[in-house]
Write a structure and sequence with these properties.
Largest sheet of chain A: 3 strands, antiparallel
Strand content of chain B: over 45%
Shape of chain A: flat
CATH superfamily of chain B: Acid Proteases
Strand content of chain A: 15-25%
Number of strands of chain A: 5
CATH topology of chain B: Cathepsin D, subunit A, domain 1
Oligomer: heterodimer
Number of strands of chain B: 9
Structural class of chain A: alpha+beta
Shape of chain B: globular
Strand order of the largest sheet of chain A: 4-3-5
Radius of gyration of chain A: 17 Å
Chain lengths: ~130, ~120
Amino acid sequence: MAQENLRVAPRVTQDTTESLAEVIGLLPGDTFRFTSGAPAYTTLRIFHPVALWVKGIELESAPPEQDEIEWLHAHPEVWTQYAGQWVALTTDGICAAAYDVNTVFERAKECGAQEPIVFKISASKGPKFYAND
Amino acid sequence: MVAVRLIRIDEPEKSIRALALVDSGADHCLFQRELGEQLGLEFDDLPLVTGRTAAGPIQIPVCRLKLELLGQVFECAVGFVDEAKLEKNLLGREGIFDQIQLGFRESRLEFYFRWEP
């Protein structure tokens, strides 16, 4: 998520981070950061079917998988396109897919993926969670 | 579902990343066996616990691993089950829920998560 998309919610400060109510008072879809570095609640928006890290304590604290998860959210077609297959997800998208997990790891390595997120897409059922769109 | 990294304690250079479902209905953390194989785990050497499934009891090899979840690393016992019997990796109560606070606000499709017991 680009820095310019980040909206600071000034009323969420160190004094209020103990209050969950303050945090959930944000509007749906808001991104935010705390004006102090105090540990605080982290809000994740539930998309189909992967939770997207919205913003936690500070930008630097975002987990390394944020870009991959955001890519996945932007490309919901992969859940049908690769149904029944193992896939390897990188910040650039799906770099390998196959019905055999070993093949996926091999192909991901061949395409230079350092440490992709590897998971199996169910063939039998639709998404468990649905996006808010 | 959230992204999680599984790291071997005895060989920390061996790790993989996967997606897992935070499941308050699961007692334990369960991952697909195929991912454990990629970590080089020897399942024959692991202790077994009995798990219950709709199809009846199954023996599940369990390994203590480090899990990295949302930027935090902690140790947790992880069971491995054939993917034919486990559609999704599960982050269950034991080892996870005693370290965090979480909640859901369905109307906003939000999930609240805090690293504090």
